[in-house]
Write a structure and sequence with these properties.
By secondary structure, the protein is of the alpha/beta class. The protein has two domains: 159 residues, 3-Layer(aba) Sandwich (Rossmann fold), CATH 3.40.50; 144 residues, Rossmann fold. The protein is built from 15 helices and 14 strands. The chain has a six-stranded parallel sheet. Strands 11-10-9-12-13-14 form a six-stranded parallel sheet, sandwiched between helices. α11 runs parallel beside α12. Pfam families: PGK (PF00162). Its EC number is 2.7.2.3. Keywords: ATP-binding, Kinase, Nucleotide-binding, Transferase.
Length: 334
């Protein structure tokens, strides 16, 4: 039995609900470049559209501090229309939620949540306006479930909450590392976001090897339990020796977790470190888990997707869950 309430057709029948999806997808020239995240959550969306009376889709894109047309969800809306074959209107203001509620339209998409400061601040008045006239909240956005924002932790305090199929798929894939870990466990952290280093102490205590590469190797990390890669002279990749050493550790591991590329992999001249380590993981018989948008892009570029057991749609949420064995989204319903 799931420790959290899961979405079913009976639980949403004839109800009005808010559906939180991960809509932060790569966009260029107003076109969605990669529909993987949207397709992953499609089973949840289609179930809601079939059984709920009304479905208000919410999500964010990018990190705007205020309304900014360049971060509009309109390109995402167009893709959702293509995927569902439905006419989905866009709501641009919170007042339009109430107006839409009086129409016969079964589905709508609210503009980028981050256009409202109340989202980041988890402002009660903002959350109350989101929740107006709704019966349920469905969270199928694992990738944002580590954030203490209005749409993640505020709505569950006002509405009965269910979790969607993609959220459950993510948790189910990660739970074996927590509940029945196969050792040795090796974690590879790369990329440029230093905020993931806040989990390092947790990982050192839980895992056998913690390997640091990419721009993170430039940080002042003194813990002797960390294995830190050496970088090339331009700091755009890890050295071949470091890549080989990482690969050797991976070959002796029973579980491998990877978050963050080891260099500027988009540039062929600085891809070697990421490629060497990625291929070492893919060739290993270990349980192989990866997460994060850049990591996913690197794996796709190298055509290694089928050789991973699970590729998470949320790098930050994945690390948070593995470090703390819970998420703010789950804590909000307790």
């Amino acid at each position: 039995m799931s420790p959290y309430p899961l979405l079913t057709s009976a639980s949403i029948s004839h109800k009005s609900l808010i559906l939180r999806l991960d809509l932060d997808v790569p966009i260029k020239n107003n076109q969605v470049l990669d529909t993987t995240r949207l397709e992953a959550t499609l089973p949840t969306l289609l179930l809601c559209l079939k059984h709920a009376r009304k479905t208000l889709i919410i999500g964010h894109r990018g990190r705007p501090k205020k309304t900014d047309p360049s971060y509009s969800l309109k390109p995402v809306l167009n893709t959702l229309i293509d995927l569902t074959k439905l006419n989905i209107p866009m709501l641009n203001t919170l007042d339009e939620i109430e107006q839409w509620g009086t129409t016969t339209s079964p589905v709508a998409l609210l503009e980028n949540l981050r256009f409202w400061p109340g989202e980041a601040n988890n402002d009660p008045e903002f959350v109350q306006k989101l929740a107006q006239n709704q019966h349920l909240f469905v969270n199928d956005s694992f990738g944002t479930s580590h954030r203490e924002v209005g749409s993640v932790v505020g709505l569950p305090r006002l509405l009965s909450t269910l979790f969607g199929h993609q959220f459950d798929r993510e948790i189910t894939a990660l739970n074996p590392i927590i509940n029945k870990p196969k050792r040795p466990i090796t974690l590879i952290l790369g990329g440029a976001k230093p905020d993931k280093l806040k989990f390092v102490d947790n990982f050192i205590n839980q895992y056998d090897n913690v390997l640091i590469g990419g721009a993170l190797a430039l940080q002042s990390l003194k813990n002797p339990k960390l294995t830190i890669a050496k970088l090339t002279s331009d700091h755009l990749d890890i050295t071949p020796d470091s890549a080989q050493y990482f690969s050797q550790i991976i070959s002796h591991s029973s579980t491998v977790i990877w978050n963050g590329p080891l260099g500027k992999f988009e540039d062929p001249d600085n891809r070697k470190g990421t490629q060497t380590v990625a291929q070492a993981i893919a060739s290993s018989p270990a349980l192989k888990i990866a997460g994060g948008a850049d990591t996913e892009s690197a794996i796709s570029l190298l055509n290694l997707n089928p050789r991973f057991d699970h590729i998470s749609t949320g790098g930050g949420a994945m690390l948070h869950y593995l470090a703390h064995h819970t998420l703010p989204a789950l804590e909000a319903i307790s």
